[in-house]
Amino acid sequence: MAPSDVAIIGVGLHPFGRYPGKSALQMGEDAVIEALGDAGVEWPAVQALYAGSMEVKNPEAIVGLLGLTGVPGRAVFTGCATGATSLAMAANAIRLGDADIAIAIGLDKHQRGAFSDHPSVSGLPDWYGEAGLFLTTHFFGMKINRYMHDHGIPAETLAQVSEKAFANGAKNPNAWRRKPLSADEVLASPVLNYPLTQYMYCGPDEGAAAAVVCRADIAHRYTSQPVYLRASTLRSRREGAFELLSPSLPLATADSVTVDASREAYEQAGIGPEDVDIVQLQDTDAGSEVIHMAENGFCADGEQVALLASGETRIGGRLPINTDGGLLVNGEPVGASGLRQVYELVNQLRGRAGDRQVEGAQVGYAQLYGAPGTAAVTILST
Amino acid sequence: MTTQVPLAEGLFTWPAEDPALIGGLASDGSFVFPYRQYKLVGGVREELERVELPRRGTLWTFTTQRFRPPAPPYAGADDAHSFQPFAVGYVELPGALRVEARLTESDPAKLRIGQEMELRIVPFGTDADGNETVLYAFAPVSEEAPHGTE
């Protein structure tokens, strides 16, 4: 394993869900206070702040709730990969010597229903939205439909992903959806975008998460259980990759952007997928988890059928994936989602995940994917 | 009597007896759709040739849209009650590219990856002047009937 110069010493979460009357910034405040308490760091000691949000234009305004210490505060946004970016930028502030202690924060509060915006925010023409094509969900349906066709994957495999997510959610006191669902119930729910059914999709919601990072060499002043940042990558799509919101695609294909981000992360960390004990994948939908298992190197295309059927990706299996229920049961407050992954991994690596604990977990892996064809990977270890 | 106008100019030849999608062709042989005037090719900005794309191709993948998309930006003539689910897919146009389009067949049981598709210009909605707007879509080519006899 490559050496690390940055450690995570505290994490906090405002559970994801629906909180009428509570603002995204207030949820962020709760997450930060939990993370600071976990780290044993007082707010005035934080020397750099990176906050990500889709709905709040200036999430760094959270300093108004935490205390006006003059800390350099910056907003970051890379779509669904925002959580990984705020963590990476906080880590870079440590590496550059700008700060000994920094904090990454994500917070969001979305309306119900599918994400909606003007196509111009993604560089697309007006008619694309008018025609009803500006929907990320179309991509998820089309990508998994082709993938199932190419690799012989039945709908049951997708249903097993959701069944696992809801089983993990039932064990997670912070989860939004806590009722177990059988694969049959998932398959019987309405088809939203063929072949994806209602319970194969995550929903936008509300919540916040935070992580306190510091120079690795001073981490033991704060905790006996630092978790080290081993890799942090983000890539944009290459010509020929099949990604979100593409009015056309060239005939010559290229690997998905997740493959690029993943390979680079393994190189940074000096490990391979076989060294990973616990995994968080972007499961915007059950099909995405299936595809991302292969794109992140955890199996060959098509092997997901056997892995899901034999329960290998459940807690207690060989390769536990989305142990907190992932996006499918927590929903996606976009700015916070990546730091929710980090929150779960850090708690697992510190052995304090309760009923969901993966025994002996030492290396954790988190992947994010979203518009406009961006993927990020974070690797953590004890 | 209203006139049929394209939802947006420059997407397809119109009016035309045998309409075609309009793409751009670069000197390296790569295509773009929708057409745009310029593209960086090998680091150099070049003007693209305006070309008509093949009218037929094969269905590369597809999905369905069960609920009315959020409006705006969606501008269909339907409302929440009259909305009819539709399908959307990528159609591989041989020698050119894969184009994303609405499909005229909305039942996934009647769609198959690899099946032959052909371009149609279909009614879509109404513009601010009361004209009927039309949009490109792809329709399955009847597999029973010989070409051109549907």
Secondary-structure map with pairings?
The complex is a heterodimer of chains A (382) and B (150).
Chain A: E1 6-17, H1 24-39, E2 48-52, H2 63-66, E3 73-76, H3 82-95, E4 101-109, H4 126-130, H5 136-151, H6 155-170, H7 183-188, E5 191-193, E6 196-197, E7 206-215, E8 227-236, E9 248-250, H8 257-269, E10 278-280, H9 286-295, H10 304-309, H11 326-330, H12 334-349, E11 363-370, E12 374-381
Parallel strand pairs in A: 2-3, 2-4, 10-11
Antiparallel strand pairs in A: 1-7, 1-8, 4-7, 5-6, 8-12, 11-12
Helix pairs in contact in A: 3-12, 5-9, 6-9
Chain B: E1 4-6, E2 22-25, E3 31-32, E4 38-41, E5 44-47, E6 49-52, E7 56-65, E8 86-93, E9 97-103, E10 116-126, E11 132-140
Parallel strand pairs in B: 1-11, 9-11
Antiparallel strand pairs in B: 2-3, 2-6, 4-5, 7-8, 7-10, 8-9, 10-11
Key structural traits:
A: alpha/beta, two-stranded antiparallel sheet, 20% strand, globular, B: 150 residues, mainly beta, three-stranded antiparallel β-sheet, 11 strands, 0% helix
Overall description:
The complex is a heterodimer of chains A (382) and B (150). Chain A has one domain (6-111, 200-377): Peroxisomal Thiolase, Chain A, domain 1, CATH 3.40.47.10. Chain A starts with 5 loop residues before the first strand and ends with a strand. Chain A is built from 12 helices and 12 strands. Chain A is 33% helix and 20% strand. Chain B has one domain (4-140). Chain B has no helices and 11 strands. Chain B has strands at residues 4-6, 22-25, 31-32, 38-41, 44-47, 49-52, 56-65, 86-93, 97-103, 116-126, 132-140. In chain B, β8 and β9 (97-103) form a beta hairpin. Chain B is globular, with a radius of gyration of 17 Å. At the A-B interface, α4, α5, β5 and β9 of A face β3, β7, β8 and β9 of B.
